[in-house]
């Protein structure tokens, strides 16, 4: 009986950690297929999730976000918060935004986890009109 209870508790905690997005993730450039940066996603005291660029793997043409229209305008990409305000909604994280530091454009964002991969969807208006990137877990 103890073995069954232990197995149930272990499975329960494994399921909880599986749906988490906190940690370091390698982003992939859509055009070249090369690893572009490392983004660290954390949960802040407001209960929402935020992602910050902590390492650039490819030197950008412009190290600053000159296309940004908000408080990030002209700020360095390294250290920039590119994911903001995601809330956990079941197995998905939604309700936040993601900014492309290359163009400065900000999109609505949904993230779901699939093992050691994140499916990061940025879109305008409806989720059907957008694109999905796959980010890979960094250990």
Automatic annotation (TrEMBL):
InterPro entries: DUF2147 (IPR019223). Residues 1-19 form the signal peptide. Residues 23-137 form the DUF2147 domain. Keywords: Signal. It holds the Pfam family DUF2147. This is DUF2147 domain-containing protein. The lineage of its organism: Bacteria, Pseudomonadati, Bacteroidota, Flavobacteriia, Flavobacteriales.
């Amino acid at each position: 009986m103890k073995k069954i209870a232990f197995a149930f508790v272990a499975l329960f905690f494994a399921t909880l950690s599986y749906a988490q997005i906190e940690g370091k993730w390698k982003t992939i450039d859509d055009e070249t297929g090369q690893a572009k940066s490392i983004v660290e996603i954390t949960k802040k005291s407001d209960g929402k999730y935020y992602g910050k660029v902590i390492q650039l793997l490819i030197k950008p043409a412009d190290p600053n976000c000159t296309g940004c229209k908000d408080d990030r305008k002209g700020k360095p990409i390294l250290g920039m918060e590119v994911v903001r305000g995601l809330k956990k909604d079941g197995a998905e994280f939604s309700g936040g935004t993601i900014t492309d530091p290359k163009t400065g454009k900000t999109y609505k964002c949904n993230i779901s986890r699939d093992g050691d991969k994140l499916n990061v969807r940025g879109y305008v208006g409806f989720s059907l009109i957008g694109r999905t990137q796959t980010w890979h877990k960094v250990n």
